[in-house]
Structure formats: C-alpha cells, structure tokens
Design goal:
13 helices, Amidase signature (AS) enzymes, single chain, eleven-stranded mixed sheet, globular, two-stranded antiparallel ribbon, alpha/beta
Length: about 475
C-alpha cells in the first residue's frame, strides 16, 4: 500500500475499496514510523488532514462529485505556502512565518481533492543541492540513510521514495526537482516556465529561472498533477494558458520515429563511470522503441557563473529588506553570496543576457534537428547526507557546479526536463536519465518518459526502509 501510485489509490477510493480516512490513517502511521529516520517532513497537520479525509469520505458516500486527486495525501515543499502552516524556507529567522493563504499550486491541488499532510524539508531558501538546514537538520536518502536525497526538494523526494506520500510538490531553479528525483529514484518534472503559475509573490521575479513541478512515483501521476495545476493565473504574469488537451489523456500518444540527441557530457561535464554505464544502457530503450538516437557533437557555453548570479539576484530581491537583521541566524555561504550580488551591475546584466542568447541559439539549432535531448541527470550517485557535494569524480577534480552540471543550463534556457530512473549504481543508489524537450512541449517529455517507463518499469523497485 505504501508504494501505490496516486492513480491506483484514487481507483481504490472511487470503487470504495479504500476510504480517504483509511488512506490517511495509513499515511500518518507510515510517517510516524519512517520520518524519524529520514526527516523528510518538518511539520505534519495530522488532525486537520484527518478532518478533511472524513469530509471527503462523507462526500463519496453521498455520491457527490469529487476531484481527480480525491483523498490523495501530498507533501508540500517548505518554500511554498499552505494556509495556516509555517513557511520557514528552512531558515531560523522564519520559523514562525505562518502563511495567510495557499500558493496557487497548493490551492489547485486541494481543489482537485488532494489533502496536504505536511511540509517537507529543504535547504535554506533552496540554496544547495542537498537538504540540510540549521532549523530542521539533515534529510536522509531512503536508499541509504548515510546519503543525501538531494536538494532542494530533498524532503519531498525522500517522502515519496520513503513510502510516506505518493506525490509531493517541488520547485526547480537549477535542478531542485531533478537532482533529488534522480538521487532518490523518483520521477521528477521541471515544467516549462509558466506552465504552473507561481506565487502569490511578495515581489515579482526579475529573471525566469525557477519553476514548479511534481515529484511522483509514476509518470502518469505527474501528468495527472499537471492537469490539475496548470493554466494561467493573474498573480503570475508569465503563466501560460491551459493547453487544449489533457496531459494524462495524451500520454500514450508518443510520436513514432523520434529523432533523439544524446549528449553524455554537454561538452564539459564529467560523469561517474557506473552512472554513465547505466545511462548508456537505459537510452537503448528508445532504440528498441524504434526511435533514432544520435550522439550530439555540440556543446553548451559555460553558463554556470551566469546562472549563479541570476539566481542570487532573485534571492537577494526576496531577502534584501531583512538580510542585515537576520544574517547572524542564516547560513554563511548563503549570506556571503547575497552580499556579493549587491554589486551586480548593468554591465553584468548585459553579459548574462549575452550568455542566455548564445544558449538560446544553440538550443534552437538543436531542436531544429532533434525532437528530444537526453543526458545523464546527475554526474554522480548521492553523496553524504551532510555534504559537501563531490569535488572530484573517479579521481578527477571538478568545479563547484560540476556536481550539478546537467541541470542548471535548462533553467536558463527554459526548456521542460524530466528525470527517469536509469538503474542502481554498484553501491545500490539510483541514477537518472534526463529527458529535455522543446519549449512548452511538456507533453512530449511526459510521453517519452512514460514510454520509457513502460519499457523499463521501476514502480516495484523501492528502498526497503521501514
């Protein structure tokens, strides 16, 4: 029961073989048993969740119309608001910051029948690719509790992979959905910018770097999730209108004879040998489906410095008015980065846009020739739970961002990208395959991910924790 998909659970609920109350009781029992080991959830609204489950059970008994996520327990990343709960951002100064309303995404999930169980752990303001903060401590990987589940949606990934909830929210500014999904053996989708409205905002974003998305056990669950939360909202002027199709209903309709580019390095990355071996084996699944795989000979420009500066600008815009008051209670690396970005100039902005323009042209040229781009998701398996990220791979030094080399470029470019499990390394840890599509082709990314899942099912491969 603990590893059933959201779709399986809703089928059981609709057939009245399982009630929302029974599912919530099992969920809370599982969290009580496993969360002390993993530290995925930092707060749980058990009483309110049970009350909502009872209400849904009564509605079902009365044959009332219910939403597509009826009774599904979800975790919400602690960078996102749930009315009446603390949104701490994983930061000590915000430990009593009670949200006055739901985020747009949470409100839409609730309207679809989902029940928020609690908030999931995140590094402070999502700043790192592993999940640890001074307020709630370290989150651990269900496959090996000495390792990290990744970040910054690490609590969400650990909750899904640990059998606590079938679905959890994530956000991705440089890989924060794909990193933990890869390290934890889940499915993770970084949507196109605007696909899921963000906000409400205290301050509108300057640069389109981060977006929302799900962490799930199956691709179909992510498609269902997207059907429930996508569509324009006036709080987010960059949000896209609802598509004229259902992501879930079209998920089986993958085109034939796709042209797929495979880049093992993007021209600059180094990858752990057994991770690369798993990726190379996994990509043959697309050849078995009849699609054409071609080794991409191109490379991406060095976007790391640009990405880092732009994301730090966004964080500074969120925190500048309270930074001096709170700096002694916040992580030193975060504060130092925010201090340095104060000198970001008009010239810096022009240089950043030149880099993005070059990246945009390369991606435009690539998708004129190919339908999809596939890469490893992460260069390594999960590292130590308390960090730091690896500084070398197979004995070769890598730069700081070399540990997340494949994810952040597509936050700068805006393309949808998903990660699917590619298998387990020699140490028994998950590795991921990243599938990138043309802009706004979340449907094609989901179709390719689902077709891969059908060829290489992973839904019966979960850690034996608890």
């Amino acid at each position: 029961m603990f590893y059933k998909s959201a779709q399986e659970l809703t089928r059981l609920i609709r057939s009245k073989d399982l009630s929302p109350v029974e599912l919530m009781e099992l969920t809370l029992q599982r969290i009580e048993a496993v969360n002390p080991v993993l530290n995925a959830f930092v707060s749980v609204r058990a009483e309110q969740a049970m009350d909502e489950a009872k209400t849904l059970t009564e509605r079902l008994a009365s044959n009332e119309a219910v939403g597509p996520l009826i009774g599904i327990p979800i975790g919400v990343k602690d960078l996102e608001d749930v009315k009446g709960m603390v949104t701490s951002f994983g930061s000590v100064p915000y430990k009593n910051n009670i949200a006055q309303r739901d985020s747009i995404q949470v409100a839409r999930l609730k309207a679809a029948g989902a029940i928020v169980v609690g908030k999931t752990n995140t590094p402070e303001f999502g700043f790192t690719g592993f999940t640890k903060n001074m307020l709630y401590g370290v989150t651990r990987n269900p496959w090996n509790t000495e390792r990290t589940p990744g970040g910054s949606s690490g609590g969400s990934a650990a909750a899904v992979a640990g059998g606590m909830v079938p679905v959890a929210t994530g956000s991705d500014a440089g890989g924060s959905i794909r990193i933990p999904a890869s390290y934890s053996g889940c499915f993770g989708l970084k949507t196109s910018f605007g696909r899921i409205p963000r906000g409400p905002f205290p301050l509108l974003q300057t640069h389109s770097i981060w977006c929302m998305g799900p962490l799930t056990r199956t691709v179909k669950d992510a498609a269902l999730y997207l059907d429930c939360v996508s569509g324009y909202h006036p709080s987010d002027p960059g949000s896209l209108p609802s598509p004229e199709y259902s992501f879930l209903k079209c998920i089986e309709d993958i085109p034939i004879n796709l042209r797929i580019a495979f880049s093992p390095t993007l021209g600059y990355a180094r990858v752990q040998k057994d991770v690369m071996s798993l990726v190379e084996k996994a990509i043959t699944s697309f050849e078995d489906m009849g699609h054409k795989i071609e080794l991409w000979q191109g490379s991406l420009p060095d976007t790391g410095e640009t990405w880092s500066k732009l994301i730090n600008c966004e964080l500074y815009g969120q925190l500048y008015h309270e930074l001096d008051k709170n700096r002694e209670k916040m992580g030193k690396s975060l504060v130092n980065s925010l201090d340095q970005i104060k000198s970001f100039s008009i010239d810096d902005s022009i240089k950043a846009q030149k880099v993005r323009t070059e990246l945009n042209q390369i991606m435009e040229d690539l998708f004129e020739r190919f339908d999809l781009l596939i890469t490893p998701t992460m260069p390594t398996e999960a590292f130590a739970a308390k960090g730091p990220p690896p500084s070398e791979i197979d004995g070769h030094p890598i730069p700081l961002l070399g540990a997340v080399a494949f994810t952040y470029p597509f936050n700068l470019s805006g393309h949808p990208a998903a990660t699917v499990p590619a298998g387990l390394t020699k140490n028994g840890l998950p590795a991921g395959l990243q599938i990138i599509g043309p802009r706004q082709r979340d449907d094609l990314v989901l179709q390719a991910s689902h077709a891969y899942e059908e060829m290489r099912p992973w839904d019966d491969h979960w850690p034996g924790i608890g």
